[in-house]
Amino acid sequence: MQTNWFTKSIKETISETNSDIESGLTEAEAKKRQEEGGLNKLKEAPRDGLIKKFFKSLLDPMIIMLIGAAIISAVTSVASGDNLTDVFIILFVVVVNTVLGMVQESKAEQAIDSLMEMTKSTSKVIRDGIIKNVKSEELVKGDIIVLEAGDAVPADCRIIESFSLKVEESALTGESVPVNKLVDIINLKENTMEIPLGDRTNMLYSGSTIAYGRGKAVVVAIGMDTEMGKIANALQQEEDEKTPLQKKMAEISKMLTKLVVGISIFVFAFGVVEEFIKTGNFVFSTVLDTFMLAVALAVAAIPEGLPAVVTIILSMGVTSMSKRQALIRKISAVETLGCTQVICSDKTGTLTQNKMTVIDVSTENEQLLAKAMALCSDAQIGENDKEAIGEPTEAALVNYANKIGLPKYKLNESAPRIGEVPFDSMRKMMTTVHNESGKVIQYTKGACEMLLDRCNSYIKNGEIVPLTEGAKLEIKNKNKEFADKALRVLGAAYREHQEIPEKFETENLERDLIFIGFVGMIDPCRPEVSNAIAECKSAGIRVVMITGDHIDTATAIGKDLKIISDSSEAITGVELNKYSDEELIEIVNKHSVFARVQPEHKTRIVKALKAQELVVAMTGDGVNDAPSIKAADIGISMGITGTDVTKGASDMVLADDNFATIVNAVEEGRKIYDNIRKVLQFQLSTNMAEVIYVFLANVMGITIVTPAQLLWINMVTDSTPGLALGMEKAEGNLMQRKPRSSSESVFANGARSAMIIHGILMALIVTLSFFVGQYMELKHFGIFKSADGMTMAFLTANFIEMFYAIEMRSQNGSIFKMKTKNKWLIGSTAITILFTLGVIYIAPISKMFGLTAINLKELIVAFGLSISIIPFAEIHKAIYRATSKK
Asked: What is the DSSP letter of 424?
């Protein structure tokens, strides 16, 4: 059972961890605990080796079907004494396809190596009463560690000593502002079983960083028992799901398998029965010939080049997306982007800049206000620095002063610090004393309400006047205006001393102050995000913000980006705990901003959306985003600010951390899916045509094409235009369409009927070409030459696929209205036509394929018959457009 250490007193914590608050553990005890509890490191997820990856790739349904075809072809080739050329070609396609996928994914795959980076760090620990530096992986439960600004927290700890301690926890909680840390016990409220991570102010968690102050803490959890360990474990438990395209390809494989088996059985049975009717018995050689014909039909029906073409198209998509700053880690994720319906985005660092910035001020003397804020801060900026270095809030103040012409390094020269009272969370203010040209000037900054209580005057109309209750109320009302806009408000005051104070203490310094004014800060939205979200909406994509930040801040950002229009559309993680997973499905539809959430909430939200069969993308940069990124259909991490843990869990990395890049990637994904559908329709239509004209030839007792010719058509004429179609540019209004459903068939929007109709048309044209060739030879020479009709049919079968590929540049639109050109398709068409003519007119090759050289007249007729598919297909598409409008 998990211990709520934040509810324990320091004494109880030290007792239950069997430690000592002064001397810590002994080295002997630490070694003993390490042997029992292991190292303070995260377990690495098991990885597949190259051999295992290779064989896993072979489990793709399309590949299994090709392997089956190769085995059957091998058996029949051996039985008939033929060579195994067909078998080797099919297996070559299988190997090339598998290796292509492996190479692409292996190049991008980083797994979660970065989770182990913590093992390289060291920590200051008290052992045997002495502060020692030890490797962070050697820490054990009960160790007393010493921390100061800049240190990484190496394990989960209960704070036992805090001096103005502030901790940056955005990687775990999503909160952009460092959290003040105390030693006080946190009591669970009535009917509350837990407190969000970000509100456990007496705890430190592995993965966070000390932003300010110093302190001591006792280690209460190490390795996989830490909050980071739970995230790592969730990543390992989360299973990768199939992408929509993988599911569709599996469906196509099943459909083709049934079709192939059905056709093969029918043809085999038809042939055997026909032979029996003719001869009255079964002749083995005839049965074998019939079986081989059935296998030839099976090979014709299977688009051998399809898996390789799809893989290559996806690989080209990966390259294209990388040029647009979207780095794809998993090749199958390319098309998933195209059907994304919901983008769940982290706020800090994704929608916002993860940099506190002063965006509004309330003062009569801005120069004095900026000067006070900068001097009363520990953040620094050098002469050549663009950004201040230090605690984020103080860095924002120094940047603000620098922006209006008051660089901190110059202020330090003209007004060196001579004393200070550090910030603490009880009085919520900080004071510094400076020597300004011989004058002793004190500056104090802090929470406005606390600061006003220490002031007795303020600046009005350029003069110092008494601070009346009416003036206080006016200032507080203005402060509330800032707070209502989710701004973090800090006030500043000053005081002039006659001499250097004897003691730099709160009691004698922080009184009788002159109030200067206050600033409003926020982690601002990225400038490009607003337009990106608007584009998402026009593309029918819903944007949801999920953050660990406070609900007021999240709501303000959500309204600013037009993610929500009303505060009622925002909800907190604590409220989500009230709902079951079933109830949450309804809740996620009513709310688009989720604040104060923990990692498990993010994953629940993603799964609730996916339960509605929505395709969900999740973006983020912190460790806390990793499990939900893994759970999403498409996980997107930030390349610059993103943690390596998150990158390892993601499918895509944004190299420029630009939310707008997601929109570009979605557009690219939609284009790629469109092109894959075009390739599918092209190859399945042409393969259907092959099956039909081979079957018709069998019924009529003739041979239109031989198995070798069929293999040429499948491997050369099918594949080359398919690749070229994959290079097709996006059609108009691509980002004005609504996202397709993940359950939508690849044959939706008329593709199924087009595939059948076009397949039948092409089969009839090829069959007609065969008889035309036979007729022309008979008329010219007065003799019947089967090679002439077969050559005409072969030529037409190749040419018609070329022209059909051109027609497939748009599935339902007219190619005559397209404004773009596909130079790759033009080039591949020209090359394939030349190759085909070479097969016919180069004597040794034509003899090998059983073809003969035909005359110019026959060539023109074959060309004319082939090109007729374009007007036929155009008429069909026009009819479909007209009927679909109705």
From this structure: E
